Amino acid sequence: MAVDHPLARLIAAFADGDFLAADGGWQRVEPWRPQLEAVVAFTGRAVFAITPDIADEHLVALGADGFGGAHDPRLVTALAGPDAWIDSLDALLVGRGTGAPGVRPRLVARPDLSDHPRARLAAELRDDVEVLGRPGDPGSTVATLARGVGGLRELSFEVDPAHRGGSGAALVGDALSTVPDDELVVAAVAPGNAASLRAVLSAGFTPLGSLQLFRRDAQSRSGTE
Predict the structure, then answer these.
(1) What CA–CA distance (Å, rounded) separates 217 from 131?
(2) pTM of the entire predicted model
(3) Which residue of 44, 157, 165, 188 pairs with 90 in a disulfide if CB–CB is 3.0 to 4.6 A?
(4) Which sign does the torsion angle of CA 110, 88, 207, 210 carry?
């Protein structure tokens, strides 16, 4: 999946160990999806994927910095406005595809699971969503792969309640087998969701930063400058 968004390039560089100076600085980039904005933080750095109508001076006045200020709840609520949708603050992790030519992926397309809450959420926030599951599985275990953060491949998943208790890592590994070998994959996991966090870590994902998505209301969009 070829991507050229500035945030995608940063994430790819960081995933390869090429970090920016942890000097508390911040920068801004265009949103990667219409009507969806984000605050992303890394070690000592922050990135605002926001529309141009928010002036730099406004961000400074709200306390934006790369040492935690970017995720001050007062900042994101001020940017988003009173009627906005604000997602949970997630850990941002990176992994790699493991698919190989001639090797059959362990998950298949499951359009019958497209109404699963996890799949519906992916469709609201990402593009080119693939809904995957195990062939013939009568349960609700599902994984989605889509064009998400920065246009990168993004994974989400949920294990059927009847099969929880350690099977999440296998599901994540199976999902990675559908992605070409070494292609970057991101996942956003709420830190409080310890089971999912353990699953992606066990499957080889590495913590890279934090992410908070939001959609602003029309009134806030005109009153931020």
Answers:
(1) 30
(2) 0.92
(3) 188
(4) positive
